[in-house]
Amino acid sequence: MSRKAKAKTKDRAGLEIEIGYKFDDKALLERALTHISAISGGPQNRVDSYQRLEFLGDHVLGLVVSDMLFRTFPKANEGELSRRLADLVRREACADVARAMNLGPSLKLGNSESNAGGRDRSTILADVCEALIGAVFIDGGYKPAAAMIERFWKERMLKPARPLRDPKTILQEWAQSRGLPTPAYKELERTGPQHDPEFRVAVTLPDRPPAEGMGSSKRAAEQAAAAAMLTHEGVPAE
Predict the structure, then answer these.
(1) Residue 96 annotated to the active site
(2) 0.85 exceeded by the pTM?
(3) 202 with 225: CB under 8 angstroms?
């Protein structure tokens, strides 16, 4: 085995220790860590990247976290459980977990993506985190996937990182309490590559200056715009 291959094997073994799961099928782990930019042949071979595993992992994560919330908060109603779930499985939360797993150094990226800082890009880290969950689910089944998710999400579940009411909800309730219409959101600009776009969105209310926000998704940009308007109006975003 070459020195490079030995280093790669050691790196993957370290990652397995970090996540608390050892793969029987190492090819699954490798695919979960492979960005489309590292695939020869371009986008037409995207099935060899983490994208299919990400799709599966997203749904496994939602199921496991829903079960955790259901058992942990027996008196919470459906609305509260839904808000907590949305907070725990959002892209930013998955990216934070990916950083806790130290996934960045293990990613397989094309040279251009790597040189552009892809190893610390939240969109990529969030996707790989979900892909890794999907890979564990295929390799070992529900029980080890749930154990890994609980390992990294339990503390986040008990101590939410942000308010359960998001800025858009707060702004809408504030507007309604003053007899104003529902805030209107408009996409102003979309930049960046297709796999990692950035959105700029404006929100407007009558007789008030518009506010803008940016984010890696349209929803995130809308939340940022709503938070900016709340700040301008002196309304606490919590």
Answers:
(1) no
(2) no
(3) yes
Residue from 58, 96, 113, 222 carrying the catalytic annotation? 58
Of 123, 158, 193, which one is at a domain's C-terminal end? 158
The reported pLDDT for the residue numbered 166 is: 82
* Residues 72 and 126 occupy one common structural domain: yes
Q: What's the CA gap between 182 and 169, in Å, rounded? A: 10
Total number of domains in the chain = 2
Asked if residue 8 is part of any domain, the answer here is: yes
The verdict on residue 238 lying in a domain is no
Best CA proximity match to 157, nearest among 219, 222, 97: 97
Indicate the residue among 134, 158, 182 that finishes a domain.
Answer: 158
Residues 138 and 187 both lie in one domain: no
238 is an active site residue = no
* Beta-carbon-side half-sphere exposure of residue 183 (alpha carbons within 13 Å): 30
Whole-angstrom Cα distance, residue 43 to residue 85? 32
Read off the pLDDT of residues 40-71 as tens digits, 9 standing for 90 and up: 765 556 677 899 999 999 999 999 999 999 99
Range of the domain at 217: 167-233
Active-site entry in 96, 127, 130, 222: 130
